[in-house]
Design goal:
Elements lengths: L14 H19 L5 E2 L11 E6 L11 H6 L13 H4 L9 E6 L5 E4 H7 L2 E9 L4 E11 H8 L7 E6 L19 E5 H4 L5 E6 L2 E2 L9 E3 L12 E7 L6 H5 L23 E4 L6 E2 L7 H4 L13
Parallel strand pairs: 2-5, 3-12, 6-13
Antiparallel strand pairs: 1-2, 3-4, 5-6, 6-9, 7-8, 7-12, 9-10, 9-11, 13-14
Amino acid sequence: MDKKHDIKPSEITPKELYMNRRQFIAGATAVLTGLSSLELLVPSGADSGQRLKIERRGQYTLQEEQTSYKDATNYNNFYEFSTDKEDVAELSRNFRTRPWTLAIEGHVKKPKVYDIDDILKLFPLEERIYRFRCVEGWSMVIPWIGFPLSDFVKKCEPTSKARYVEFITLLNPEQMPGQRRDVLEWPYLEGLRMDEATHPLTLLSLGMYGEVLPNQNGAPIRLIVPWKYGFKSIKSIVRIRFVENMPTSTWTKAIPREYGFYANVNPDVDHPRWSQARERRLGEFSKRKTLMFNGYADKVAHLYSGMDLNKYF
């Protein structure tokens, strides 16, 4: 990471101060509106009046210091808006996430188009604190809010022909100025093997830090696959397709030598232009050792038993 991206400790909101601020807001809101203590106000810039209710605490969580909200929402990879990570928050400020639909297509018994607010009613939301590792060498620890993708897959009832799940981002150059440039082939597309998609760790996220996803972080719904590099966790999803053949992911199509389909965090496989052995946590100055499968090896390594992880990177 360039020095201009290093953040001084004095600029980072302490976790305790941030949580106290949120508790004050949540408490005041509960008094005024009668909401439960788990219902929190939506941050500025998100859709007015929408709240998230955390109904359960996820079993998959970390006892690690969380990345500050400021860092997590102001340093973002989202090429649909900009290739400059520090510009995305401003350029996505007026991005409209309502109305929003999610189409389910392909080899399923129940193809359907869901309204995003109906999805919020269908699945109980839980909070999970995950490590998040980007291929460029920076990482975060984020309290995501969402529900297991496996629950959604089960509801769609895929047929025996469905071996992969394909995800597609919104295509709207009017709202997403980065799509006016030929940086990548639009719309953005990603995919998972069915066993990866239905793994208990894989999450469809609608929020973070107790609140609705900020636009710059992939509102209103995104994928989180914590043992893979961040580009696999596709943002602002509008279509999910169940397919027989392996999808060609956007980055794989653009630069296949650098970005493979699997994108598992592997410190032993270097990116052609830099090492993946170490990483820098946002908000910290020193680097730390990169963990195999981002620290989730005990839970996911069996998915790749017998595979050459140097070849299938």
